[in-house]
Design goal:
Largest sheet: 8 strands, antiparallel
Structural class: mainly beta
Number of strands: 8
Number of domains: 1
Number of helices: 1
CATH superfamily: Hcp1-like
Oligomer: single chain
Low-confidence stretches: none
CATH architecture: Roll
Helix content: under 10%
Mean pLDDT: 93
Strand content: over 45%
Distance between the termini: 19 Å
Order of helices and strands: EEEEHEEEE
CATH class: Mainly Beta
Radius of gyration: 18 Å
């Protein structure tokens, strides 16, 4: 088993949401990171002197840095999703989304922040944070079946 390099990973978006299957690659992505966290409910009783906790609600957020290339549709589509408060499907895959054996996280997200950066000695970037949308579907791990 080999560990892929970040540059071998693929980021995708679907302007209509996860279940629409109209994925567009984001080739201008520099870095993508998803964060899964959960709250812990305290389940402590008098029969023990230890504070005990149980997993409760889970949270998902995705941070992505893309190059500010206005010729790429991802720039305008992500900005539009932010301004118009629309739900957008996001997939972070370890290979091409239609390739057998590829896998990764998919979720319907809202663009929570859209921040442009202008570093002096690097290409201009856009930092985008996605938060889970109220869309009726939970995040899922997509594994493209090997045929």
């Amino acid at each position: 088993m080999s560990t892929p390099l970040g540059m071998e990973m693929k980021a995708y978006y679907d302007p209509s949401g996860v279940n629409q299957s109209a994925w567009h690659e984001i080739p201008i992505a520099k870095e993508a990171r998803f964060r899964l966290t959960k709250t812990l409910a305290e389940i402590t009783s008098r029969d023990s002197e230890w504070r005990k906790k149980k997993g409760a609600l889970k949270e998902l957020s995705i941070d992505m840095t893309i190059l500010r290339d206005v010729a790429d549709d991802a720039v305008s589509d992500l900005y539009s999703a932010f301004v118009n408060d629309t739900t957008i499907g996001i997939a972070l895959m370890d290979g091409a989304i239609a390739t057998n054996g590829s896998e990764g996280l998919t979720a319907d997200m809202k663009v929570a922040s859209y921040e442009e950066g202008e570093p002096l000695e690097e290409g201009a970037t856009i930092a985008v944070t996605f938060e889970l949308a109220y869309a009726g579907t939970d995040p899922a791990w997509l594994a493209v079946a090997v045929s």
